[in-house]
Design goal:
This protein has 209 residues and is of the alpha/beta class. It has 8 helices and 9 strands. The strands form 2 sheets. It has a 7-stranded mixed β-sheet. The protein has a two-stranded antiparallel ribbon with strand order 3-4. Helix 1 runs parallel beside helix 5 and helix 4 crosses helix 5.
């Protein structure tokens, strides 16, 4: 049997809309301390978007009937511009979900990455497609991130360059995470010294790259 390379015209917004249909009252995004349910996210995506994450979801809504090869994100990588199609973004998200097996519909994913990065779009796609809660933090917010991990507020998180640098500058160890914390995904990969500190803080089974 021959298999097509197509993902059957999947779009980012199709997955978010499906998650909203399953649990419209679940919190989809927390930004600046303000929660937004999936129903509210759907409504906001159809109007004026005051934040970067809502502008992105809104642009995906416009493309809801587009094919999988349409551009889902235009990003800056140094001096160059990188474009990710719906297909590329979803395959990266699916790959992370399968490899790490630490994301679920009931979880809260903390993301301090700038939305201009590919990693941030992948993390956001994972959370919103699964119907979890995406908690947006300012880049470098290591203290807020560590506090949320320690009190059981965050189940998973992504660590970017700013957070890894902040950990390297700390003289003391952040508070230990709650037992419910599952995984910290590092992007980019940390140096050997920083990874040693991460493992000492979180445990080796909770650090991934």
């Amino acid at each position: 049997m021959a298999f097509t390379a197509s993902l059957h015209q999947l779009s980012i917004f199709d997955g978010i809309r499906a998650a909203a249909a399953r649990t419209p009252h679940r919190v989809a995004i927390v930004e600046g301390g303000e929660p937004l349910s999936y129903a509210q996210l759907m409504a906001a995506a159809g109007g004026a978007q005051p934040s970067a994450i809502l502008r992105w979801v809104g642009s995906m809504r416009v493309q809801a009937t587009a094919d999988e090869n349409q551009v889902a994100a235009t990003l800056r990588d140094g001096e160059s511009t990188v474009e990710l199609s719906h297909r590329e973004l979803l395959l990266q998200a699916f790959d992370r979900i399968v490899i790490h097996a630490a994301f679920d519909r009931d979880g809260v994913l903390a993301m301090p990455l700038p939305l201009s990065s590919a990693s941030a779009r992948v993390a956001a796609t994972i959370s919103l497609w699964l119907g979890g809660t995406l908690h947006l933090l300012r880049p470098g917010s290591l203290d807020a991130l560590a506090h949320g991990m320690a009190n059981g507020r965050f189940n998973t998180c992504w660590l970017g360059a700013a957070e890894l640098e902040a950990l390297g500058r700390r003289r003391d160890a952040p508070p230990s995470p709650a037992e419910t914390f599952l995984l910290a995904v590092c992007d980019p990969s940390p140096s050997a010294q920083i990874r040693e500190r991460l493992v000492a803080w979180l445990g080796p089974e909770r650090v991934a790259e």
